[in-house]
Amino acid sequence: MRIITKYTNLGATPAIDAYIENKLGSLKKFIKPWEVNAEIIVRVEIARTTNHHNKGDIFYAEANIDALGKLIRATHEDWDIRVAIDQMKDRLQTEIKKFNAKRRPQDSKGVAVNRKIREK
How far is CA 21 from the centre of its chain? Predict the structure, then answer.
């Protein structure tokens, strides 16, 4: 899994890069089965929505994963960049789990054959 970070209206810092890498690194266990043919790329955008606000939701975090022909996306706006990244990661994890649940065969032929063998 490779993470590409884009900053909009915000200066890039090594601390934020490390924070994103740390938070999204925990998603590797859910994405690892997808990396059969190619490396999965996670595109993250961190932005400051306005330059003139001092209060309110001014930071924006977005992540996009293009995996197996489907786009998995999560966004969040918050008052603190780290909170926005945390919430975005939680939403992304939920979307990945939903995608994996839909993709997993519930009763494929192999499972049906194994059930018949166990019944004998």
Answer: 11
The domains of the chain, with CATH numbers, are 2-119 (3.30.160.100)
User: b/e map of 74-90 (b: 16 or more CB within 10 Å)?
Assistant: bebbbeebeebbbbbbe
CA angle 33, 87, 9 (to 5 degrees): 105
Could you read off the pLDDT of 14-60 as tens digits, one per residue? 999 999 999 998 888 888 877 777 788 899 999 988 776 666 668 99
pLDDT value at 120 more than 70:
no
Q: Strands, DSSP E only, in 49-114?
A: 59-67, 70-78
Looking at the chain, the number of H-run helices and the number of E-run strands are 4, 4
